[in-house]
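LOG
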Amino acid sequence: MDFTALSKIYGTPLYIYDFDVLRENFLAFKNAFAGRKALICYALKANSNLSLLKFLASLGAGADCVSIGEVRRALLAGIAPYKIIFSGVGKRDEEILEALQKGILFINLESSQEMHRVEKIAQSLQIKARVSVRVNPNIDAKTHPYISTGLHENKFGVEIEEAKAMYLYIKSSPHLEAVGIHFHIGSQLCELDPILQASQKIAKLYSSLLALGLEIKFFDVGGGLGISYEGQSTIPLYDYAQGILASLGGYEPTIICEAGRRIVGECGVFLVRVIGEKSNGQKRFVIVDGAMNDLMRPSLYQAIHQATFWGEKRGEESVCDIVGPICESGDYLAKNVLLPPCAQGDLITFANAGAYGFSMSSQYNSRPRVAEVAISAGEHKLIREREEFEELIEKELKCLL
C-alpha cells in the first residue's frame, strides 16, 4: 500500500480500509458455520461507515445494532430488516417504536422493565413484537474490565432465573413473541473456553424453554472474538463454531453471531504525519497530526496499535512516545516504541485500526473528524470526506445568541 501517495491525495490523519481483507474475514465466519443455519450480524459499533456496510450487505451480512441510528444505517446500506437485530441496555421508547415499525428481526431485551415497555408499544401498534432475552451467564471473559459484559457486576442482560420468568411471561402475552435467546460475555476475547462455558450454560436454558413449549428459532452467541494487537493467539473460527454447535447437542436453531472487531479490525490502518520531535529531559516525544480524538483506544484501554515508520531512516532507533496535539497528558497513540529520528512530513501507520477507531472518534478541541478511504483490488476510493470547521459550528450558528 502506497501510504505516501494516499497521504498526498487525501491528506492526514486518515483511516484506510482494505476491503479485500474485509471480504476474506467476513467469509471466514460464514464458512465456519457452513452446512448449518447461521446469520452473521455484523456489529455496527465497530465501524459503521455506509460504504463498508453496503459492501458487507453484498456478502450477505446482517446487522447487530445498539441504537436506532445504527438500524437506520443498516437499512440505508441495503441490509434487509429481517437480518437486523436491535440490542442495547438503554433503548428509548421512540427507538423501540421505530424498530418495530421497520419490521426488524427481533429486539434483544435487557430487563423485565424493558420487556413491559416493548409489550406496551407493540400493543399500541396492534402487532406482536419479536423479541429475544439477553441472558447474563456470569462467566469471566478474561478481557479488559471496560469491555467485559457477562458478569453480574456488568450492566448487561438478566440472570438465568429472571430470564426464565421473562420467557414465561412472553409466552402468555398476546403482543410478544420469543424468537431468540442471547448472550454476549465481552469484547477482544482470545480464549475460547469462557465462550463455550457460556454457550453450554445458555444452551441448557434454551433446552428447558423448548420443553416448556416456547418456539425459539435463534441462538444468538454475541460476538467479541479478538484479534492480535500484540501477537496474541486468536480463537480459530472452526473451533469456535464447532464448540458452539456441540453445546447445542442435537438442537438446530439458527446461530446468530454478532462479529465486529474480528471482521473489520485487521483491515484498517490509521495514517498520521509527523509534525516534529521534542525531548523533556531523557523523555523523547514524536509529535504527529493524529490524536486521541481520532484514535481513542490507546488512551481509553491502554490498547496497542503497532506503529510503523514510513520515511527516510536517518539514524538509530530509540524509545519514544508518539503523541498528538490534544491538550491532555493522556493524548498518545503509542508509548515506549522504537522509532528512528523523525522529521516533519514523515509518515507513521497504526495497525489493526479498522474497529473502534473512527467509530469512537470525536471533535474534541474543535478538531474535525478525519477522512476514510477504501482500498480494493489495488484501487482506492474516498468513502468519507474530511470534515471542515464550518461543519463543526453549523448547528451552533443557527442558535447563536
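LOG (cont.) second protein
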Amino acid sequence: MDTLALLGGPQVIEAPFERYNSMGEEEVAAASAVVQSGVLSKFIGGWRPDFYGGPKVNEFERQCEAYFNVRHAITVNSWTSGLIAAVGAIGIEPGDEVIVSPWTMCASATAILQWNAIPVFADIEAETFCLDPASVEANISPYTKAIMAVDIFGQSANMEAIMDIARRHNLKVICDTAQAPGAYYKGAFAGTLADIGGYSLNYHKHIHTGEGGILVTNDDTLAERMRLIRNHAEGVVGAKGTNDLANMIGFNFRLGEIECAIGIEQLKKLSRFVESRQAAAERLTAGLSGLKGLRTPVVREDATHVYYGYPMVLDVEALGVSRARIIEALRAEGLEGVAAGYVNVHLLPMYQKKIAFGNSGFPWTSDICKRDVSYDKGICPVAEQLHDESFLGFEMCLHRLTDQEVDKVVAVFQKVWANLDTLR
C-alpha cells in the first residue's frame, strides 16, 4: 500500500490536468470575421429595425430555437441578466414571493430581489440536490407568484411535479438551467418545460462565449417582454405600442456580435461535449462505485445528466474520517477541483441580516413585504446537512478529462480509501 502524499509518499497526479478549453479554429475564424466586418454590435435602444440586434445575434438565436425546439431564444450578456429579465417578464409585483432553491449560485435569488420581490427558500432532494417538490408545496403562501427551479450540477429538477404544483396554484415557473444545457428530461431538453428557462454561456460551462446566456420560452408574450427588458424597455414601449407597462424598466443586457458568432460555433459542438462529459462520468462512477461510504451521482429516471459537476455524498460515520481530512488527502495527491459542500444561499449575510437595498432592511421591513419570511438555519435541513457534513463535489468543468486522467482520479480515491485507517 502506497504511503499517502499527505504523509510524505509520492503523488498520484504529478502534473495538473489540461484545462477545459472548448475553443477551436472555427471560433477563431468566426470572431475574426466579425471584427473584420466592423459590426461588433448593432443593437439600438429604440423602436427601430435594429432593436433586436445584428445579424449574428439573430442567427444565433434562430439556431438555438431550432436546437432546443422552442419558439423563442433570446440572448443576453450573462445568465444573471437572463434571470433578472425572466423574473421581470412574468409580471412580478413588489412583495410577491418566489420559491427558489438554496443550492444554487446566489444570482438565482438575487434576480428575485432585483424586482423587490421576496425569495422563499425550499429544501432540496437528498439524491439529486434539486428542489424538493414537497418542500416547494409546503412553502407556498397566499403571496407566492412563481417557482424558480434550478437544474443543479447538470440534471433537471423534477419538472413534472413542479409544473403540476404550479398549475394547481396558478404560479409561473422559471427554470435556471445554467449548468445543464443539453440535458434531457422525459424526452425534452432541460429548461424548456417551464414558462421560461435558459442556459449560461459563462467561460466554464459546456459551451461558452466568455460571458452570456440564452433565455428560452414557448410563450410569445413573455419572449417579447424579455426582449424589451433586455434593451431599454422604457425608451421603446411608446413607439412600439406596448400597453402592459409593468416592469418595463429596461437594462442593457445585450450580447455582442463577436460572442454570438462564437456561440454559433459552440452550439454545433454541444452534443459532442455533453457525450464526452457523460463518458468521463460513467468511467469515474465505474471506478468509484465499490468504495465504502461514498455515494456516486444519482441520475433521475427518464432523464440524463451532463455533469457540469460530479456530486458525491460521504457517509462520514461509516468512514470514521472527517470530510475535511479526506479532502486534504485527495488534494495532496494532486487532485484539483474537490470541494466540501456547495452553498446555502439563505445563510448568506444579505439574508441573515435582511440588508439589501440601503441599510433599512428594504424590502423585508417595508410595507410591500406581507409577512415575516424566515431565513433561519434549519429551514432547509437537507441542504444544510449536505453542506455542513457530507457533500463532496468534483468540478468536472475544470478539465478535459481523458480516459487516462479519469483513471488517475480513480487511483487517487482508491489510494486514499486504502489508507483510511491511517487517516483515522
